[in-house]
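Run log, item B.
One chain of 510 residues. Sequence copied directly from the ordering sheet:
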Amino acid sequence: MSEESKAEEKFNVKEITKSANIVGNVFSRYTYGINKIYITLRKDVKLSLGSYVFVLDDDDLPIVYQVASPEYYRYGYDFEKRLIAHGRVSKDESHTYDCVGILVGKLYEDGRIEPPKYPVIPLSEVYSCPPKLIKLVTEPNTPFKVKIGVDPLTLQSVYIDLRPLIRQGLLISGAQGTGKTTALLTLISRSLEVYKNLRFIILDWTGEFQPLSSLEKNGFKICLVSWDKFITGLKMDDPESTLHLIAEEDPRVKSGAPREVLFTALILCKKDGKYPTKQNVKSKVEEQKVGRQPGTIKTVHSIVDKATHIPEKEPEEVCSKEKLLDEVKKNNIVIIDFTHTEDVNVPDDFEVKKKMGAFLAKCIWEGATEKKDFGCIVVSDEAHRIAPEKFYGDEMDPIWIRLATEGGRNGCPLWLVARRLSLVSKAVTTELQQNFICFNVEDVDKKRIIEDLGETFANLLGALPQGEAIVKSATGFKVPGQVMHIKFDKVLEPSSVKYGLEERFKPIQA
């Protein structure tokens, strides 16, 4: 790097702060701290939630804070209600706009951002951060930074570091229609632009991710497959799923001794590495004759003979882990479409789909842990379906906790979308909240956010417009744990966007 380039790299921080405008002063009735300051704004000055301000330290370098908890303070008068009742209002202007500043850090001239060593001096002047200063304290200094949107206040581009999203995973939450899927489509598309060798497997429960196929025109390889393509692998790997399929068509398998014998036979087939064909299952049933009623064995043989989900012979191709991993290695994105079932013999049963999702996730986990040169990002929407909170659904497969806790370090991070955060396992979401994108949420979900991240973060949410979110990242921005207000870019739209009011409700024919 030339000396001239190095000079450009080293910003004159003090020069940048000279263009800043004073917006108020630090004022507290009691104590003055470091991590949080109380600000009273000058007359006619207002600061939006999430704005950046700074105070000057003794060495004239800026200590940057982010605005939270804006308040309107006004003296109360006993007679005001009577004034209103008689049609008059008070014109008294003895009021102030106050807010709290949450510490971002002290910016040094070499680009470092560190906590200041001493509390802010009382009545210190507070300045609004110029755009260039905001960029210095937010934009990550990395070649793998992904542009995800703009700051609604300054309209500056916002970047996040890709590495932490791979290392730590990601959680996106928000009410229906707030922009979760659009944000994720943007993040996937832009991440591929930054690093073209990325691989994704997307469990698409609602059909919203199919627009990603348009990325083929940019040279990326996209594969869209129906979920039941891997049903043969699921039957081989998960006897419980096979038993569930059989039970759906034969009530004799719902409970009792026949169910126990059949389930044991399926488990023994898996243990011996044999595909559960009629002959193989019957053979394992015969091995259980001792201690069983002859009628039970006869019933199980009858069940096996009539079961359409137990084939006469082994399929020509078993779409097992190897087949899935081969598909993932050949493509940038593999979309598993759970909205469409190609095989007429496979029921459109959510319990089976749920087990299929876990089976595919286990395959990726095993592939990534067995080989250090293989990685794949596991993406899923509808988090409450696969990882439900206790008392809100069936048992969660342990693979989801494993991916949330250990997936990143093993090259298979979990990117999860939760429409109702309160319905999703806390064990999973807590691990993924190192990188958290939060759109507008229902009150019950906001309570969950307060439990997980505290009131300071929850208070930043406010009433966000569609497409805007509060984003927290442990190390994705310039400062560890930084929180940013972002209006996400719209690169692609979810599939359901084109099927709105007019498309769904045509004029009634005469």
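Observations after the first pass:
- The radius of gyration is 29 Å.
- The chain has three domains: 3-138, 157-230+318-502, 251-306.
Flagged for discussion on Thursday.
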